[in-house]
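User: Fold both of these, please.

Assistant: Here is the first one.
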Amino acid sequence: MRRLILLSAVLLTACATPQNNYDPLEAVNRPIYSFNSTLDEHLLRPVAQAYTDYIPSPLRTAVYNFAGNLDDLFGIPAALLQAKGVAASKSTARVIVNSTVGLGGLIDWASDLPIEKQDEDFGQMFGAWGIPSGPYLMIPFYGPLTVRDSTEKLARLAWGPIDYIDPLGGQIAYYGVMLTDVRAQLLPFDATIREQLDPYAFVRDTYLQRRWYKVYDGNPPYPLPMGDSQDDAANPDRAAEFDTPVAEPPQVEAGATETLSTEVQQ
């Protein structure tokens, strides 16, 4: 009986973690995921829970809005380089309104006008250009990413507000608050991840599918072929093989910047 139970568990695990050619570095990524999970359990999650419990809602909303204003700012060139004039103009209007009467982005007046929030970034832009995602990466102290999506993070490091914050202690405080806010927004997803037979595979596949969904503005031509080594942009002939309706991956509010992403690393 024990052997049967053990065999069943092995078979279930095998079914839950099929070969994923987007993840050629899985042997390295899994230990990093375990490290991130341990760090989260003992530090990030308790801090995020305390942040939610004890920081007044108006202050948390201000932090959320500030991060969202940065999303809008970096979304402008990403939209323009995809020839999405309407999206670029709306993001520009949002930045102008929220950066002025919104006190540097702390108040989201634009959404009340309403000027709809857009969802563009450099990773999506390169995907729309036909550039494959590249290998899936689990980054220490951060979470899931792909080589293509790393362009957005590098752009923010190069041209983000951190250059205007001095001294180093201020920069650490800035990143600490932003990270805590993102982690707090993901608290409702913790139970879902814990219920998974293989949390690592769940986080990976959710991240990849959601990024795929975003590249096509919510209307991908077919489900992400998880067993392929390249995106459909590099394999357009595969579209006919996938005619299953595509359901939208799990949502995370825009202020979390990457939906079940840094997001879903734990």
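And the second sequence with its predicted structure:
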Amino acid sequence: MPVINRIAGFAEEMKTWRRHLHTIPELQFALHDTAAFVKERLVEFGITEIHEGIAETGIVAIIEGRGDGPTIGLRADMDALPMTETTGLPHASTRAGAMHACGHDGHTTMLLGAAKYLAETRNFAGRVALIFQPAEEGGGGAGVMVEEGIMERFDIGEVYALHNVPNVEEGSFFTTPGPIMAAVDTFHIDIEGVGGHGAYPNETCDPVVAACGIATAIQTIVSRNRHGLGDLVVSVTQIHTGSTDNVIPGTAYMNGTIRTFDAEVRQMVRDRLEAICAGQGASYGVTAKLRIEDGYPATVNDPGKAAFAAEVARDLVGADRVTDDANREMGAEDFAYMLEARPGAYLFLGQGPGAGLHNTGYDFNDAVAPLGASFFARVVETAQPVG
């Protein structure tokens, strides 16, 4: 696996960082210990321009290169998930109900590795903005950092990020131009009927039957309102109602997720959900009130930046281990907000066999961290060469 020699030289140190971070998982925006650890390392590397408290616990650190030039942004997410770890590893989480089950400890380590190398060599023009972001897992920390003006404040012209993927060839990269991850929205449906005795359903307006009818009708959004080759997911994931066997309840609640890639399809789904709730509600004699909670937008790579990033990856690992036209993923990612603000690219890095993401048995593969750090460093040196 071709790794920059200097980064390979401190690979064991990177492993130590990563495993320490794994023991101290923190959630959402409250990443005080994690951010403190990141700052300590940045200071050790001789980086003097460190901006804290962005999106509460986010950090942007600036490394000056040699001579004038633009500023390139590199982003790593730092937060963990509200899960209880079951790995039994020596470096397992020490905090009940929290664990790094998505590898953000590895992402942070890869960016720290790039930071150490870039601060030592400064073999690039312009500047690098190292973006350590809180609250990717549901909090939209990337959006908050953008709203707080990091792109303008630090004059960031383009931005890049990596995400690890278990059970994909170790050290392989894949990306695609345009949309790479879906927009995610959440729908909530409150059904109000008339409850009564289970033996006399004729005296009720049954929200249980209505919920079943609505759930069935929702399935037609994908199968009958979208081209068969199109990418769209609408899933009902919760139905809550009732309390005992001989009572028809008066209310029901439904919930689910919407995954789309473009604005027209996203709006179509909303329109169809409104029509289904109104029509099905009327047919069952209940009211079905729809509420849609906006989530992350689609993660859309700039085609030119995606091609550039793929070429950098090919120089590192060889053409046979880089896919630049990968299938789009239905998962969501708040790096989307940064790509809405600036052109850039999001890539996946294979980490070999292991438990999947968001699994209580997951652990990041430390062997790929030096490669991720090398990729970040080469993106900077290639995009902004000295002279």
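The longest strand covers residues 156-165.
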